[in-house]
Write a structure and sequence with these properties.
The chain has about 150 residues and is an alpha+beta fold. It is built from 6 helices and 5 strands. Strand 4 and strand 5 form a beta hairpin.
């Protein structure tokens, strides 16, 4: 078990920030008889993830808002450290093992494979303008259907 000070030193947050996360209900640390927090290894995982989000140049208020949204959506008996969080260019993405979604918007993120696509371009044959003037609309339609 880790004290607030130990967590602070290990993950680079201030002691006040560590305690604020606990008071906000993002974690459920144990308490000593003197009412001091004792954080588990799972809690440390949460703090490391949060620190990574902060270091990804996401504003702190967005990180806090995303964490509040996660806590609102997921039951309190399930620790937030079970959800993997990643910073992307347009927000915070969550992955809980079954689905991936944008925490702020709630939209599901579809992960399509990005294999290279090989395309062969086929250009139509060049049309002699004199012949083109003689052809009817029906023949042009038939030619288009062949392409």
């Amino acid at each position: 078990m880790y004290t607030s000070r130990e967590v602070s030193e290990l993950v680079g947050l201030s002691v006040d920030q560590v305690r604020r996360f606990a008071r906000a209900g993002f974690l459920s640390p144990e308490r000593t008889p003197q009412n001091h927090y004792r954080f588990s290894f799972q809690d440390m995982t949460f703090f490391r993830t949060t620190t990574q989000l902060f270091s990804a140049d996401l504003p702190r208020h967005r990180v806090h808002r995303a964490l509040r949204e996660l806590r609102r959506v997921h039951p309190t008996d399930r620790p937030l450290c079970e959800i993997r969080l990643m910073a992307t260019g347009d927000g915070i993405i969550a992955h809980d093992g079954t689905s991936v979604w944008n925490v702020e918007s709630g939209q599901i993120v579809l992960d399509f494979p990005t294999e290279p696509v090989h395309i062969t371009l086929i250009y139509p044959e060049r049309i002699d303008q004199r012949k083109a003037d003689r052809e009817s609309a029906d023949s042009w339609f038939e030619r288009g259907c062949v392409l």
